[in-house]
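Structure (tokenized):
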């Protein structure tokens, strides 16, 4: 049995219909006001009947398919609808119940007080000639000038990368990667730019990571999600922050027919394992990145952005990186419009703002100035009460 938190704006009528709730039940339950909606996957009949009664007893509800009360089906999916007070009660009440409800109770408790983090913009600098967006490519002194401009325009973090991870790309080797990023790293160190912003190195190689961490960098941005033990040791050695990103496959093949039964739960399971690995190496500071576009279909990317708040259950900051990505083109092609990376800033701002609304606090982007303005307006609206 697994659960994940749905965005409160989800069309629960549609979800209830999909899992097989009878029409009368859908009409009744869809009218209930609820702060929390949890999708429960693979709950047993016995667990569902107990949880349903416990939920009803406190004013909450459990939407289940037809036939569940008579146990015509052994395992199925359900929706738990409740407010915060009811969630607090259920997270205690189910601790004494059988059928794995104790485990469910522990999971529910993680969502009672989700953490909040200040918003930070991460500017992107690519020291290679084959990144998917030409406007992010810089070398040497030109890169330093752009970094200073990004800091002036509101970036708190600068992410430097020497290789492309776009779909279809191949890794050029450690020597070539170091050759590309060394001049920029050296210039940052020489001019003490690391005192003006936090610097992140976008690499999955321990040798490149160590070179950057020795010269003022504080963040290890790892698209393999801490796959390498040597990389994990290096992060711990320098007491750095690690960004654990989810991807399926390698950049060369990741977009060749990716498939998920439930992308939120699969990414959740991946994070659980890699967080444990990080802790086992003594890594304390972690950021989670769902990996938009890394082995994902359009519907997977949309689901991860819409239900991003679910991942706050781990207690770490969430990074969103959808800047100018092809998912925007996929959406526009449905309207008969073809776009290239240079034309996708409006779509980027919408995706990133929605992700922030749903819990992301670090926004990795190419267009710092535009994001800074958009988020200032967004925060003003969010703080305004009367």
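Design, position by position:
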């Amino acid at each position: 049995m697994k659960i994940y938190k749905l965005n409160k704006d989800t069309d629960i009528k549609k979800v209830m219909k999909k899992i097989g709730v009878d029409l009368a039940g859908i009409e009744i339950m869809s009218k209930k006001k609820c702060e929390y909606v949890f999708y429960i996957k693979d709950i047993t009949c016995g667990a569902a009947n107990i949880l349903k009664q416990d939920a009803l007893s406190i004013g909450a509800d459990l939407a289940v398919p037809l036939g569940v009360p008579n146990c015509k089906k052994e395992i199925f999916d359900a929706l738990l609808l409740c407010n915060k007070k009811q969630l607090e009660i259920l997270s205690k009440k189910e601790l004494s119940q059988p059928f794995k409800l104790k485990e469910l109770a522990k999971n529910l408790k993680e969502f009672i007080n989700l953490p909040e983090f200040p918003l930070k913009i991460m500017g992107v600098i690519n020291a290679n000639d084959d990144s998917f967006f030409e406007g992010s490519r810089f070398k040497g002194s030109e890169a330093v000038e752009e970094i200073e401009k990004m800091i002036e325009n509101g970036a708190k973090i600068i992410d430097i990368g020497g290789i492309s991870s776009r779909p279809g790309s191949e890794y050029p080797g450690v020597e070539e990667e170091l050759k590309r990023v060394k001049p920029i790293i050296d210039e940052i160190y020489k001019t003490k730019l690391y005192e003006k912003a936090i610097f992140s190195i976008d690499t999955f190689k321990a040798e490149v990571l160590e070179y950057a961490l020795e010269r003022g960098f504080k963040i290890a941005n790892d698209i393999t999600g801490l796959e390498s033990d040597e990389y994990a040791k290096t992060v711990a050695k320098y007491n750095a922050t690690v960004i654990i990103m989810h991807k399926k496959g390698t950049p060369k093949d990741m977009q060749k027919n990716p498939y998920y039964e439930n992308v939120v739960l699969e990414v959740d399971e991946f994070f659980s394992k890699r967080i444990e690995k990080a802790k086992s190496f003594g890594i304390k500071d972690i950021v989670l990145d769902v990996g938009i576009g890394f082995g994902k279909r359009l519907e997977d990317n949309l689901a991860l952005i819409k239900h991003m708040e679910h991942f706050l259950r781990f207690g770490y900051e969430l990074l969103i990186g959808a800047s100018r990505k092809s998912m925007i083109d996929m959406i526009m092609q449905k309207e008969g419009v073809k776009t290239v990376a240079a034309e996708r800033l409006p779509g980027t701002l919408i995706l990133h703002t929605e992700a922030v609304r749903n819990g992301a606090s670090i926004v990795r982007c190419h267009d710092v100035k535009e994001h800074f303005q958009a988020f200032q307006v967004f925060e003003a609206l969010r703080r305004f009460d009367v």
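Reviewer-requested clarification: The first helix runs from residue 12 to 19. The radius of gyration is 23 Å.
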